[in-house]
Amino acid sequence: MNMQFRPGEQKGTEAVVKQAIADCDIHPTRKDPKGLYPYLEKRWRDHLDAYGALVYQGMVVGPLYPKGQPNASRRDAVPPEGGVQGSSLKFMQQQHLDPNNVALGIMCPLSLQGFRNLDLGAALARATNDWQVAEWSGQDSRLRASVVVANEDGEASAREIRARAGDKNFAQVLLMSRNTEPLGQRRYWPIYQAAEEAGLPIGIHAFGNSGHPITPGGWPSYYIEEMVGHSQCQQSALASLVLEGVFERFPRLKVISIEAGFGWAPSLAWRLDKHFDRLRSELPHLKKKPSEYIREHVWWSTQPMEEPDERQHLLDVIEWIGWDRLMFATDYPHWDFDEPSRVLPAGVSKENRDAFFLGNARQVFGIAA
Amino acid sequence: MASVIPDGIDCDLHPALPGIHNLLPYLSDYWSDQVTNRGMVDLVSASYPLNSPITARPDWRPKAGKAGSVVAELTRHALDPYGTRFGICNPLYGVQMVFSEDMATAFCSALNDWLAKEWLDKDARLRGSIVIPVQSTEKAVVEIERCAADRRFVQVLMLVSNDNPLGRRVYWPIYEACERHGLALGVHAGSNYHNAPLAVGWGSYHTEDYVGQAQAFQTQLTSLIVEGVFAKYPNLKVVMLESGFTWLPTYLWRLQKFWRGVRMETPWVDRAPQEIVRSNVRFSLQPIDAPPDPAMLERVIDHMQSDELLLFSTDYPHWQFDGERVLPEGISSDLVRKIMIDNPLATYPRLNA
CB B208 to CB A243 under 8 A? Predict the structure, then answer.
């Protein structure tokens, strides 16, 4: 976890050829609140000017849980030409893509889903996707876009996915973990059907506004509770996908869990299996054990890496999940950025390192060197 | 397989109230009339539908009525086979779901009196938990004060999911009373369903709710730690009941990492979350969400970095294990002793009196 880097810190490693990496969670941001206006019809520009974009929470300006620092971003990631962190492709290249030898960068634009007005949601999703191509992936071939969708409207989402199918700018469909209902529910199935047809994995990124408190026991007080709580949301969202039979219905669907940790995956799978064994009469639509669906259909991005006192403990957990299931991510430009050179302990085999840093992502996204 | 040793302490037994009419002798005339005249029959939580396989192990399920409603059966099934010295009774009756704090208070008092008279009086091995009307902190504290004089009550019982997260200051007078009386705070699986049972909403299945209890415990443990409950009440012991525990190590890795990053937000948390858990939080053994291989469970227990966290439980009559295989494979005899005897005695001061 690094809030800031001084340029001098990486000296001495430059002579060594750095491992090429895939970064499965990069956050490009709009230069200002009107950054998407060139991609929106006048009707929606006027709407945003008058009413803003209502989501399932009480504020239109200001966070419920103020972040630890502005924009939850590294202070050193502000572009020299101005604008917020993550808004300049040139500076992202200089600060991150080039020095960290990023061969493949998957972009996950945030705060563009979960709108109460479904038509606005569909318009913003389309604009976001055009913007990613025009200003990012179309300008740097290392970067790939996510198909942002109007998540609460399954049919509109499916149309957007079909419109982007076959476009090599797009690597995945993006959802957030928190929606008005658990993600396995049928209202979201058109999204899975369209993604499966298009051969695009579903990336489920932590966050989102659902209208539900981030604990099953009410609204907590602090930002740290929201941050830690994203992993519990992700667990429940994944349990919902499994128990609703989404992977039975869409057998070629791939799911990537993004920025929600991965250490919890084994314990969740054991718990699901144990209670599935007892309660399977409730779930006749499942043909396999929950852990088998997870093993076959789910991958995890790594940031923020869990950090036990004993590094061996982390390696135990990775063994249980599988070295073929983790995909490195930095979360650039956010403050809890994971630095690639420090993220794995010594002693990991070259084969596992290569899979972790690049190979698994190439395989899941179907993007060759 | 690790063997059970005698004189153990079973920290999670569920005596069942057959029906609300069993509370009538313990209710005031007013509430007794309310129950009768308004046609109230029972209060059964959605967490444990009566015929769900989880709710009662098949060989513990009686031909009629609720499993766990007969003292002699509970002791024969859960205490006698293991030579148990004490068994702590945690009644799960739907008093937390009702919205009226007056009704909840009347029912909780009656339930506690019922437990003392019809269970604790009947078998000297049994100990009790005080069920409180969480709908009103003030009334909850009054109920704790009322019951605390009976030293057979060793714990105060809450559900894991309530209107507000457990660390919230609104509940602190309850924790103050627990600490002052030497009562542990037992936090049991279950929700009052005033919020969705999952942080992502309402699922479709009972299985989903039950699996989701583990995530509920994780969020509530975060709340207890970061709100500063253990800085304010350093002698308070919180026991997570029917929570599972294999999630604990990786959960703490994440919490501890973020605490290092944003501890300026909660400056009163002056010890690492891992240390706080080691000194103040305990977990009942069952259900064990165990990996398929006992060697992996050994690794998980190693990841916990403490042999003081687990407390023996059968979770009777819930179906968590078969036969007498209450202890998992993969734990040492030293750990069995800690789990069955030393840790419970250190957690519940009233058991030593």
Answer: yes
Strand ranges in chain B using DSSP code E only, listed in sequence order? 9-13, 86-89, 126-131, 153-161, 184-191, 238-241, 281-284, 310-311
Q: Say yes or no: A2 contacts chain B, CB-CB below 8 A.
A: no
Residue-level pLDDT, tens digit, chain B, 353 residues: 579 999 999 999 999 999 999 999 999 999 999 999 999 999 999 999 999 999 999 999 999 999 999 999 999 999 999 999 999 999 999 999 999 999 999 999 999 999 999 999 999 999 999 999 999 999 999 999 999 999 999 999 999 999 999 999 999 999 999 999 999 999 999 999 999 999 999 999 999 999 999 999 999 999 999 999 999 999 999 999 999 999 999 999 999 999 999 999 999 999 999 999 999 999 999 999 999 999 999 999 999 999 999 999 999 999 999 999 999 997 899 999 999 999 999 999 999 97
Amino acid identity of residue A290, one-letter, is P
Q: Which residue of B has its CA nearest to A180?
A: B201
Number of C-beta neighbours around residue B15 at 10 A: 25
d(CA B332, CA B338): 10
Please give the domain boundaries of chain A with CATH numbers for all domains.
18-365 (3.20.20.140)
* ipTM exceeds 0.85: yes
- Which candidate in B134, B220, B250, B318 is best for mutational testing of the A interface (most A CBs within 10 A)? B250
